Amino acid sequence: MTVTSREGAAATLAEVSIEVRGLRKRYGSTVAVDGLTFTVQPGRVTGFVGPNGAGKSTTMRMILGLDAPDSGVALVGGRPYRSLRAPLRHVGALLDAAAVHPGRRARNHLLWMAQYNGLPRRRVGEVLELVGLAGVARKRVGGFSLGMRQRLGIAAALLGDPPALMFDEPVNGLDPEGIHWIRGLLRSLAAQGRAILVSSHLMSELEDTADHLIVIGRGRLIADTPVSDLVAAASGDQVILRTARRSEAMTVLANAGATVAATGRDALTVRGLPADRIVALLGENNLPFAEVAPHRASLEEAYMELTRGAAEFTAPVIKEAS
Amino acid sequence: MTARDGFVQILRGEWTKFRSVRSTAWCVLLGAGLMVLLSALVAAGSTTDANDEPAEPIIADQFHFVHQPMVGDGTLVARVSSQQDTGPWARAGIMIKQSTQPRSRYAAVMVTPGHGVRLQADFTTDLAGSATKAPRWLRLTRAGNVITGYEGDGTTWTEVGSVTLDTLPRTAEVGLFVTSPSTAERVVRRAGGTSVGPDWRLGTATFDNVSLAPASGARPGTWRNDDVGGPVQQVDGTPLAGSATEAGGTFTVRGAGDIAAQPPSPGGDNDTVRDALSGIYIGLIAIVTLGVLFATSEYKTGLIRSTFAASPRRGRVLVAKALVLGVSTFATGLVASLAAFLVAQPIQRGNGFRPPAYPTASLSDGPVLRAVVGSALVLAVLALIGLGLGTILHRSAGSITIVIALVVVPSIVGSLLPIRVETWIQRLTPLAGLAIQQTRTDRFDTYIAPWAGFGVLCAYAAVVLGAAFWLLRRRDA
Predict the structure, then answer these.
(1) Host domain of residue B272
(2) pLDDT in tens, A51-89
(3) How far is residue A48's CA from residue A201's CA, in Å, rounded to a whole number?
(4) Do residues A288 and A178 share a domain?
(5) A44 belongs to a structural domain
(6) A319 lies in a domain?
(7) Which residues pair with A92 in a beta bridge?
(8) Is B126 left (phi over 0), alpha (psi -120 to 50) or beta?
(9) Is B433 in the same domain as B466?
């Protein structure tokens, strides 16, 4: 798939990535982003995760040239955003769904953006159709629910049919159906070969969507890893065992050198022994069991593991748009 | 793609933004509507009787007179050795007058700083002599009812002219006189009221070689001096008395006033065109609000980030905004000021502002057209100041308040202050821009020339927009 930029240079989607190198930003005495380096590769969904205040939004604003970094560079397709002549054709972004004039109709909200970048007027109708807002195109945005505003923001991001997209907390305020819709959209956009960066402060939101994760805390990079590696690392070599004779099983396995923890009424988590060895030991001791399975850590657990100590706010968590 | 194409795209986008929110329509309607309404109200509340004034000339007869009676024929000679230049028509000379009653008949020969030697009589006769200033010898003779005036250099005499005063009594007052018409207006503010009147200054002249020779051979009497017509009064009521002293045959005489029939008032002194456009004071509030909101609504909602993401070239965005706003508010202002002018004019006519005192103002007159179009320009520039301040401050209320404070407050406060202070307020605040509404240059409140005043306003806009431009490119969005 090929996108022709207005400058006439053809850029294949596969070449366009978002790149951040040594990015640093300080507001007064607060360091918001502290030497961040990562690349958002095309063709996959990259989750951008960190607790509130970790610097996700600041990083996105610097990528879009809205905030100037104190040092470092942010590049889109190898170029600084501020040098792009029709930027919406290069990167689409949803930063804040509330950033709309309540008195303006949805159609006009997209029309001025299209005009700014010389995009054809019909794109407005197309993206409204795509996000399911065609029916309210002539309604004023002030009457929109948060979910509708998120869809409008996504429509704006898609307006220039850009090879790279950034979404800041896109599922905020969406109902389950909307969340399902946006996950499908993100995956299909990535499947088209686009580079997708999606931020969230909740790892679970990205569970089934992200292929790759960039985890930050206090403005620093904590992990830049494929989702599968992260889960594997957090899962370790633990095995879940279900048996009605829990205490006997614990004794047998502990004697064999395993670390055993009771994690439920009839469940044990076993560490230090492979699953086949556990099955053999239980058989030798005539202990029946209902299930033996390798434990797969949830992304949330993996994330908690990673960000322990990196959270800007400790409990109670202050909920705010980061 | 040329750089200009990119700008035209931004311009189209900004036009879409501008026209697609309801506040724009509200501000435009409110601004234009209020301007027309207030102009109509001002016109309805202002009446004049300028056309009811009598058609006969008003006779001014005020001067300082050093005099004595002379019975029958005779000759008065004097040399005006010096005359202070207090105006082209300041007068110093010798006179024969029916009595010291004002408006009584007279004939006089005199020197003036600007119009040479003159022989004047009965307020309407004015004969020119040589174009000579003081020092000059003057001579006046009475033979029956014929009065002849001469001027000379001390050796030769030249006749200036002669007049016949047929009802001059046998005994008439003769002597030296000095007067000085005002050449400026004096404005006095008291308790918020403004009074405008002539600014009187005493003129001074010295005389020597004064000799009076009655044909009867009688000895001349003693000189007396009076302010004929009473001392002139300044607009605040202060009298300004003349004086005369004599030392060793040299008379020093000081006096103020005028001796002339003044033609009927050429017209009222209201600037009816400016009055017809005075609704701008209210209209501008809505127009300034429009300009401020065009910037601040983006900051309030965070839309400014979408704007700068769509075009990282922020300077161009501001220029495009300024262009869209400037042209739109100019068009709005033009409709409003034309409507105000056309609505107010018939009301003014009905209230006495009619020819001949008030000739009908026509849009084909340069100053009238300048006032109407200029009002629209002023509104557009004020909107741009609003846009600039909104961009700098990001706050609607603060920005609107500052612009209003810069324009409306000085106009209210200024009218309560002494005229000299108000003059500088009118020249230095953005209020100066409203000078473009002036169609008369002879009023006391002509503080600054129309285009100069507009220039002052534009300078404010340039500074504010320049600062906005500078900050916009430096600050994080």
Answers:
(1) 3-52+268-474
(2) 888 899 999 999 999 999 999 999 998 999 999 989 999
(3) 8
(4) no
(5) yes
(6) no
(7) A165
(8) beta
(9) yes
Q: Mean pLDDT of all residues in chain B?
A: 90
For residues B399 and B386, is the Cβ–Cβ distance under 8 A? yes
Q: Which two tokens stand for residue B363?
A: 């849009």
Which three-class secondary structure string do you get for B388-428? HHHHHHCCHHHHHHHHHHHHHHHHHHHCCCCHHHHHHHHHH
- Identify the pLDDT of residue A10: 41
Which of A65, A103, A112 comes nearest B16 by C-beta?
Answer: A112
pLDDT of residue B460: 96
Question: What is the distance, to the nearest Å, from the Cα of residue B315 to the centroid of all Cα atoms in its chain?
Answer: 43
Choose among B297, B302, B308: nearest Cβ to A96: B302
Chain B interface mutation, best of A101, A141, A159, highest count of B Cβ atoms under 10 Å? A101
- Angle (CA) A149-A151-A152 rounded to 5° is 60
Residues in chain A: 322
Which domain CATH number covers A288? 3.30.70.100
Q: Do A115 and B16 touch (CB under 8 A)?
A: yes
Give the range of the structural domain holding residue A241, as residue numbers without chain letter: 237-296
Nearest Cα neighbor of B60 from B194, B211, B181 is B181
In single-letter form, the type of residue at position B26 comes to W
- State both tokens at A271: 């560490």
Residue-wise pLDDT tens digits, B203-244: 999 999 999 988 777 778 889 999 998 899 888 888 999 999
Of B143, B140, B162, nearest in space to B151 by CA: B140
User: Per residue in A225-245, is it b (16+ CB within 10 Å) or e — as a string?
Assistant: bebeebbeebeeebbbbbbeb
- Asked if residue A125 is part of any domain, the answer here is yes
Number of domains in chain B: 2
Extract the runs of DSSP E, i.e. beta strands, from B47-179: 58-61, 63-71, 74-83, 91-97, 106-112, 116-121, 125-128, 136-143, 146-152, 157-164, 171-179
Q: Tokens at residue B464, please?
A: 């504010």
Those residues with Cβ within 8 angstroms of residue A153's Cβ, 6 or more apart along the chain or in another chain: A94, A95, A96, A97, A99, A100, A170
Q: Which residues of A touch B312 (CB under 8 A)?
A: 65, 81-84, 87
Last residue of a domain, one of A204, A226, A248: A226
A30 burial (CB, 10 Å; 0-12 / 13-18 / 19+) is exposed
Indicate the length of chain B as a whole number.
477
Q: What pTM value is reported for the model?
A: 0.76
Minimum CA–CA partner of B17 in chain A: A112
Residue type at B374 in one-letter notation:
G
Amino acid at A165: L
Between A and B, how many CB-CB pairs are < 8 A? 96
Residues A268 and A186 reside in one and the same domain: no
CB of A320 closer than 8 Å to CB of A52: yes
Indicate whether B171 and B98 sit together in one domain: yes
Strand pairing partners for B306?
A: none
User: Which has the closest alpha carbon to B373: B358, B363, B383?
Assistant: B363
Residues B163-195 have pLDDT tens digits of: 999 889 999 999 999 999 988 878 777 666 677
Interchain pair B301, A88: CB under 8 A = no
What percentage of chain A exceeds 70 in pLDDT?
90
Quote the distance between the C-alpha of residue B188 and its chain's center: 14
Structural tokens at position B300: 């309030």
Chain A 37-56, CB below 8 Å of chain B: which residues? none
Q: Could you tell me the CATH number of the domain that includes residue B239?
A: 2.60.120
Tell me B348's DSSP state: H
Burial zone of A208 (CB within 10 Å; 0-12 exposed, 13-18 middle, 19+ buried):
exposed
Indicate yes or no: CB of B23 within 8 angstroms of CB of A103. yes
**What confidence tens digit (pLDDT) does each residue in B353-380 have?**
887 778 888 888 899 999 999 999 999 9
